[in-house]
Amino acid sequence: MPDTTRLNLSAGILSVTVALVLVVAKLWALGSTGALSVAASLADSAMDLMVSLGGLAAIAYAAKPADEDHAFGHTSAEDLAALGQSLFILVSAGVIGWAAVGRLLQPVPNLVTSEGRGMVVMGMSIVLTLALVLWQRRVASRTGNRVVRADSLHYMGDLIPNVGAILALWASATFGIGQIDSVVALGAAAMLAFGALRIGKGAWDALMDRRADPAMIAAIGEIAGNWPGVHGFHDLKTRTAGSRVFVNLHIELDGKQTLEEAHAIGAALRRAILHAYPQADVIIHKDPVGDLPHPDDPTKS
Predict the structure, then answer these.
(1) pTM above the 0.85 mark?
(2) d(CA 37, CA 234)
């Protein structure tokens, strides 16, 4: 199993485990305190668990090797899952914002009890969530997995409501104020919505075969343009699918050299591109210098 697959699976398994622990802990805290802020956090964690289970399934499916029906692999499942997660996050942001506004408009706040127990549970939630987010971000930076990145955004958004819940419990215990978390929740909802739109756009672009990052395209072009034996290149095309980037490239070589020599140059260039971008799938076509398209060809290929 490739290292990137192991990292992605580790992030998915850790996400499910943390979500399950938080659901159980917040159920106990809700029973002890009756706090609306804890109830909102519990509902969010329950949704986290469902989303994380779906994300883990997508990561496992995307890790399947290419087969006869899917010659380019199954990594598009990551984009589908990330798009679904972004929609879940948008819904979550809307629900949190709506609930926060409703609580702010209530003339009499609900009574909260056993605030200390609730604060301990929410503090534990923050520590576990922060540890998970740090690991997910490390994994996403190394693998480029959109599912892990989307899940990390979702849990990052949970940190603000958790902090708001602690502030609400503390304010309730100290000053009898129970509406502070609603203000914090509105900020969290806005941040979640912005991040969800960004993740969703990236997944949608990948599903629509949008080109790779322009910086990556420029870097590949620089590698090819400066490679020994390569007299030029053209038709550099890219598309993304999940954490994979598919690269097609035509290079221009001396037409008088042997096929073995031409193959050695192309193979070495391919290895160099893969070394710079391990997530890439590279196909290199070799043309003799000065080759012109056949008049029967609509485009050069």
Answers:
(1) no
(2) 58
